[in-house]
What we know:
Blueprint: E1 32-48, E2 59-73, E3 82-88, E4 91-98, E5 101-108, E6 111-124, E7 127-134, E8 137-139, E9 158-159, E10 162-168, E11 173-184, H1 194-198, E12 205-206, E13 210-222, E14 225-236, E15 241-242, E16 245-246, E17 253-264, E18 268-281, E19 283-296
Antiparallel strand pairs: 1-2, 1-19, 2-3, 2-4, 3-6, 4-5, 6-7, 6-8, 7-10, 8-9, 9-11, 10-11, 11-13, 12-15, 13-14, 14-17, 15-16, 17-18, 18-19
Amino acid sequence: MGWSASAAAIDLAAPPVNLGSTSFEDGGGGKGFMFQWSMSNFRASDSYDVGGHRRPGAFSRDLWVARPHLAYAWDREFLGGAPGVEVIQPIASLDIKTGALDESQTRLGNTFVGPFVQWSGKHLFGRPFSSRLTLGFNVPIGAYDRAAAVNLGNNYWSFNPYYAFTWRGTDKLEVSGRLMYLWNGRNTDPETSLDARFGAPVRNTQVGQAWHMNLSASYLVAPQWRVGAGMYVFNQSTADRINGISQAASREHLFGVGPGVQWRGKSDRLIANYYFESHARNRAAGEQLVLRWMHVF
């Protein structure tokens, strides 16, 4: 989700972020290596304007994203927890049709790198509580061409920190969340297609700041199985800027909710979530499937 082609209005597409890609038992973690492979498929047949109204004309977007994810936590203490670092490298395949645009491509997205501190063995209201703070950055090494109609990488840095937690309210019930903030740097080599829409040469662009979050809850129904539900929200809090000029009606919003299931073994986890999106503003909305495999060494 998050990748887009040029739209009819001057609102810049927000960069790809974690919208529902994590869910159950998200705040947990331990020392050593962890590898995760996740796949998501997002399909939408509608795009919405700033008022939440469906934009006229045919629209179709089919996006597959693979996310190999490696994390390591050291066997030492820092700020009362275990320090570590994680790296995620998205690989995206997009097929989009809207108006005269009909594009398909598969490219690397921007790399996520973040140092973190993992806290385990804590308690909240007398129940087990674990959490993690990550100061993450999206590094602009993904595919980008200012003359292209569609880009799967972004030509700017983003600061995307998060705080993840898991609280075990009972021996079977857990509640998890991930609270995230997004600050986007300036693109000093913007897409040439913006010139005609802006009515003047575009020297630089900057997507507005945003906050977003994932929330989920699951219940242990068998020794290795959990069922539950998850949701996510994306809310852009400041306007986009073009040549330093604030763009009215350029903020994005999205809400998603749906069921999920998890199987957990000794060293592995398999998680599936399915989301239905609504309340879209300045972006597409559809349905998303997320599949994850996690292995702890």
